[in-house]
Design brief:
67% of the residues lie in helices and 0% in strands. The protein is mainly alpha-helical and 123 residues long. GO terms for molecular function: proton-transporting ATP synthase activity, rotational mechanism.
Length: 123
């Protein structure tokens, strides 16, 4: 019922007003009622759409089906991440490795800048 009254109002509007006298708002409102594919004359010919659709179907037919294979980790950081961070292998070992690395780096810097001096010159 609401659709019928709206349709008759639209018909009356189209017969009374010409496109030259239509305001921007009225044209914009009218353009949203008519889908662009229906309004275009090119939509009548289905041969172009069928060829385009065939290319899309052939493209998707060539794609592999099913879940993607898991990516194998490569590189030093990738293998370390796969071993200690990913999935069921997650552990606290990287934290221990970081602490050990900081201690080794700190001691080597301390030795280079200060402790090697004590080897030959005690205080």
């Amino acid at each position: 019922m609401l659709f019928e009254s709206r349709s008759t109002q639209l018909d009356q509007f189209l017969t009374i007003s010409s496109p030259d006298k239509m305001s921007y708002i009225a044209r914009r409102g009218l353009s949203t009622l008519i889908p662009p594919k229906v309004a275009s004359p090119n939509a009548i010919g289905a041969a172009q759409d069928a060829a385009r659709m065939e290319r899309v179907v052939n493209f998707y037919a060539g794609l592999p089906r099913g879940p993607a294979a898991p990516v194998k980790a490569s590189g030093l950081i990738g293998r370390y991440q796969a071993r200690y961070f990913s999935g069921k292998n997650a552990s606290g070992a990287p934290l221990v490795h970081a602490i050990a690395g900081i201690l080794i780096l700190g001691y080597s810097m301390e030795y280079y800048f200060h402790l090697r001096h004590h080897k030959n010159h005690p205080h």
